[in-house]
Amino acid sequence: MTKSEAIEQIRKAKAGHKRWMSYAKAMHMGIKVDKDATPLVETDCSFGKWYYGEGQIFSEMDSYQAIEEPHEMLHQTYMKLFKTKKQPLKTGLLVSKSRALKERQNELDELMKQLTYVSQMLMENLKEFESDLKNMSDLEFRQLQ
């Protein structure tokens, strides 16, 4: 892999993440989204496949390592959002359907806020990693491989 190819992978990851987030937001708003558009597990998305595969050559870099936690958190939060959206309402004698709907919507909105925050953190870390790669000399880059 060349330095320019690595930088291109990061740019693709950022674009893919923006697309992934748009699908997550659509699902949150009640729009039907193909489940393959928003993989639940961090190793199943296109970036995760690169990060845990070919991207491992950068595993010694701090900025590369800083990506893993928010990436995992992003998928974990989305999984909670997805499951909460799909679970049946908890109604009964003491809880009306409208109250249950409101409580679930509040929970979904809170999860979406968390998802957005983690998404921003991930994007910042991706930008920092890209910057580190750009600033690396060709010799330093070759030594990673």
Question: How would you characterize this protein structure?
Answer:
The protein has 145 residues and is mostly helical. The chain has one domain: Four Helix Bundle (Hemerythrin (Met), subunit A) (Up-down Bundle), CATH 1.20.120. Helices cover 71% and strands 0% of the residues. Helix 1 packs antiparallel against helix 4 and helix 3 (62-86) packs antiparallel against helix 4. The longest helix is centred in the last third of the chain and has 39 residues, at 97-135. The mean pLDDT is 89.
H/E series? HHHHH
Tell me the strand percentage band. under 5%
Structural category: mainly alpha
Sketch the major β-sheet.
none
Q: Please count the beta strands (DSSP E, at least 2 residues each).
A: 0
CATH architecture: Up-down Bundle
Percent helix:
over 70%
Q: Tell me, briefly, the overall form.
A: elongated
Identify low-pLDDT runs: none
Radius of gyration, whole Å: 19 Å
Query: Average pLDDT value?
Result: 89
| DSSP helical segment count | 5
Q: Distance N terminus to C terminus?
A: 8 Å
CATH class: Mainly Alpha
What is the CATH fold-level name? Four Helix Bundle (Hemerythrin (Met), subunit A)
Counting structural domains, the number is 1
